[in-house]
Automatic annotation (TrEMBL):
The keyword Transmembrane helix applies. The chain crosses the membrane at residues 12-33, 93-113, 125-143, 155-177, 183-202, 235-253, 259-278, 290-309. It comes from the Bacteria. It comes from Malikia spinosa. This is Urate oxidase N-terminal domain-containing protein. Residues 4-307 form the Urate oxidase N-terminal domain.
Length: 405
C-alpha cells in the first residue's frame, strides 16, 4: 500500500511539474519573442503617449496590438490589477524540488549514490546535493554582479557561467550516480532561474512600480538587472530540459566522460536557443537570421551521436556468446530473484514492472534484455551487484528465443 501511494505522489508531482513548467516556459518564450519583435511606433499619437515599441499580431481569429512603455504611460495611471508573471516560476521550482526530494533525496542510497563512483553515507550525499543548488546560485549571482559591468560584461559573464557549469557538471559526475548527476545539474540551473525571478526580477519590478506610483524616478539598475537575468533564463531553458530528459537514456549518463556529454548537450541547447532569440530581432530589422549558430549546436549534437555510437563487440566476445549454450528460464530466474526482484515484486513495482513469477519474467523479457544487457541501466546504479556473467545469462536466454521453461 505504501508503494502504491508513493507512486501516486510521484505521478501527481510529475504531472504538476510538467504543467507548471509548460506555463513558465511558454510565458518566458512569449515575452522574449515580444520584446525582440517590437518596432518603433508608427503613429504620432502612440509616440506622444510614450509608447517605446509596438507589435501587431494575429491569432485565434483576432488581431492584437501590443504596446510597450519603458515607464508608466504619461496619459494613464498604472492600474491596480497589473498582471504579474511569477507564480509559474515558483510553482515549477516547488513541484520540481518536491519530485527531486521524493525520488532522490528520500531514496539517496539507491538513486543518488553509485558506490562505484563514490561510496559515501546517504546523509552526506543529500547535504552535498542541496549544497549544489545553493552554491551554484550564490556563485552565479556573484559572477553577474561583479563581472557584468562594462562594454564586454555580457561576454565575460557568459564565459564565467559556462566555466562554472562545466566545473559543476564534472564535480557532480565524480560524486553522484550518473543519472542523479545529470538531473542535479539541471536542477541547479533551474534553481538559478527561479531565484532570478524571486530575488531580482520581481522585487526590482515592485520597486519600479512603487516609485512610479509615488511620482518618483525609478532606479534604472532594477531594469538592467531584470533584463540581464531574464535573458539568462531563456538561455538556460533548453539546457535544463535536456538534463531532465537525459534520465531516460542511460547511454548518456553512463558514458565514460559523462560530464562532458552533459556540458556539450547543454551547449548545443543554448546555441540553438540563441538563433531563435536572434531571429525575432532580425525579422524586425530586416536582417537575416544567424542560423549558423543553431548549425553549430547541431554539429555539436552530431559529434555526440558519432562519439557515443556503440562500438562493435569484440569478435572473441561474440564468438564466446555464440558458442555458449542457451540459458533456460530456470537459470534466468536465479539471476532475476537475486538482482531484480528486490525492486520488482508483488509489493514494490518500480515503473509498474513486477518480476517475481515465471509468467511475469516472460512477459517483460524484451525489456529485461534491453535494460540489463543493451542499455545496462538496470539494476539502477548496480545497487544489487549484478555481474557480467549474470548479464550474459540474460543475453543467452534472450538469444535462445526467451524460452518459457
Amino acid at each position: 500500500m505504501d508503494s502504491y501511494l508513493f507512486d501516486w505522489v510521484n505521478l501527481l508531482l510529475r504531472w504538476a511539474h510538467v504543467i507548471t513548467a509548460v506555463a513558465w516556459i511558454g510565458a518566458s518564450f512569449y515575452f522574449v519573442m515580444l520584446d525582440n519583435s517590437l518596432s518603433p511606433p508608427q503613429h504620432a499619437d502612440l509616440k506622444a503617449k510614450g509608447v517605446d515599441g509596438e507589435l501587431w499580431a494575429v491569432h485565434g481569429g483576432g488581431f492584437y496590438h501590443s504596446n510597450k512603455y519603458m515607464l508608466a504611460p504619461n496619459w494613464l495611471p498604472l492600474p491596480q490589477n497589473l498582471h504579474w508573471s511569477y507564480w509559474e516560476s515558483y510553482s515549477t521550482w516547488l513541484t520540481g524540488f518536491g519530485l527531486f526530494t521524493s525520488l532522490y533525496l528520500l531514496n539517496a542510497g539507491s538513486f543518488l549514490i553509485d558506490k562505484s563512483v563514490h561510496d559515501w553515507p546517504p546523509a552526506l550525499a543529500i547535504m552535498a546535493a542541496l549544497g549544489f543548488l545553493a552554491a551554484f546560485w550564490l556563485l552565479y549571482d556573484i559572477i553577474c554582479r561583479r563581472l557584468g559591468r562594462g562594454r564586454r560584461g555580457d561576454l565575460i559573464v557568459g564565459a564565467g557561467v559556462l566555466g562554472l557549469v562545466t566545473f559543476a557538471a564534472w564535480l557532480a559526475c565524480q560524486l553522484f550516480a550518473g543519472r542523479a548527476a545529470f538531473l542535479l545539474v539541471g536542477a541547479m540551473l533551474a534553481t538559478a532561474m527561479s531565484a532570478n525571478v524571486f530575488f531580482l526580477i520581481i522585487p526590482g519590478q515592485r520597486q519600479v512600480v512603487a516609485a512610479l506610483r509615488a511620482g518618483l524616478a525609478p532606479d534604472p539598475v532594477h531594469g538592467q538587472r531584470g533584463k540581464q537575468r531574464s535573458v539568462h533564463n531563456t538561455y538556460f531553458t533548453l539546457p535544463v530540459l535536456i538534463a531532465m530528459l537525459s534520465n531516460h537514456y542511460g547511454w548518456l549518463y553512463q558514458a565514460r566522460h559523462n560530464w562532458l556529454v552533459l556540458v556539450l548537450l547543454m551547449l548545443a541547447g543554448a546555441l540553438i536557443r540563441h538563433s531563435f532569440v536572434a531571429r525575432h530581432r532580425a525579422h524586425v530589422q530586416g536582417r537575416r537570421t544567424p542560423w549558423e549558430v543553431a548549425g553549430a549546436g547541431l554539429l555539436v549534437l552530431a559529434g555526440l551521436i558519432f562519439w557515443l555510437a556503440p562500438a562493435p563487440a569484440a569478435p572473441a566476445l561474440e564468438a564466446e556468446a555464440a558458442a555458449a549454450r542457451p540459458a533456460s528460464l530456470a537459470e534466468l530466474k536465479v539471476v532475476i530473484d537475486q538482482r531484480c526482484v528486490l525492486c520488482h515484486n508483488a509489493e514494490v513495482q518500480n515503473k509498474g514492472v513486477a518480476l517475481h513469477t515465471d509468467a511475469l519474467i516472460a512477459q517483460h523479457g524484451l525489456a529485461i534484455y534491453q535494460q540489463a544487457v543493451l542499455l545496462r541501466q538496470m539494476p539502477l546504479n548496480n545497487a544489487t551487484g549484478i555481474t557480467e556473467a549474470e548479464r550474459l545469462v540474460i543475453r543467452r536466454w534472450f538469444d535462445a528465443g526467451m524460452p518459457r521453461h
